[in-house]
Structure formats: structure tokens, C-alpha cells
Design a protein that fits this description.
Mean pLDDT: 82
Shape: globular
Low-confidence stretches: none
Strand content: under 5%
Helix content: 25-40%
Distance between the termini: 43 Å
Radius of gyration: 15 Å
Number of strands: 0
Number of domains: 1
Order of helices and strands: HHH
Number of helices: 3
């Protein structure tokens, strides 16, 4: 897999600061799986939740993360159908 290339993200001071302190990162859509995978791979025992805007974005992001991470870390949970109150 591509996970050997994730180490290059740690050469960047901004990525190191994001990993250490958290915060916001504004990156292109194509770079998001790489950055998220680098942050997840840095400490695989640390729990994380990755949220996408909709089902399609979640599937695309999950596919990108699968390419970067081996073995895959986690599951893709589908968006619930209907409003939350319709299930009460």
C-alpha cells in the first residue's frame, strides 16, 4: 500500500502542529485522504472519528483512506435514512 509515504507528512511543521495540538486544516479534496491517513497512522491506538458531509463524500473518503492505510482502520457507517425523529 501507500502507507510508507505517510512518513513524509511528518516533515511538515504544520502537519506536526495539527497532530500535536489539533485545530483546522484547509486542504484540497484530493489531499484530504492523505492528511487524514497520516494523522491516523501516526498513533494507531488513538481513537478517532472521521465525518464526511454525505454518503458519497464518505464513500470517496473511505476509498482514499483504504489506499493509504493497511490494514484498514475502522468501518464506514452509512447515513441514517429519514429524520432522527421519524424513528421514535
Amino acid at each position: 500500500m501507500l502507507n510508507a509515504l505517510l512518513a513524509h507528512a511528518y516533515d511538515d511543521a504544520q502537519t506536526e502542529a495539527l497532530a500535536a495540538d489539533g485545530g483546522e486544516a484547509f486542504v484540497s479534496l484530493s489531499l484530504r485522504p492523505y492528511l487524514i491517513a497520516a494523522l491516523l497512522a501516526r498513533d494507531p491506538d488513538r481513537p478517532a472519528i472521521v465525518v464526511a458531509g454525505d454518503d458519497r463524500a464518505a464513500r470517496d473518503l473511505a476509498a482514499g483512506l483504504r489506499a493509504w492505510l493497511a490494514p484498514p482502520l475502522g468501518s464506514l457507517l452509512p447515513q441514517p435514512r429519514g429524520s432522527p425523529t421519524s424513528r421514535i
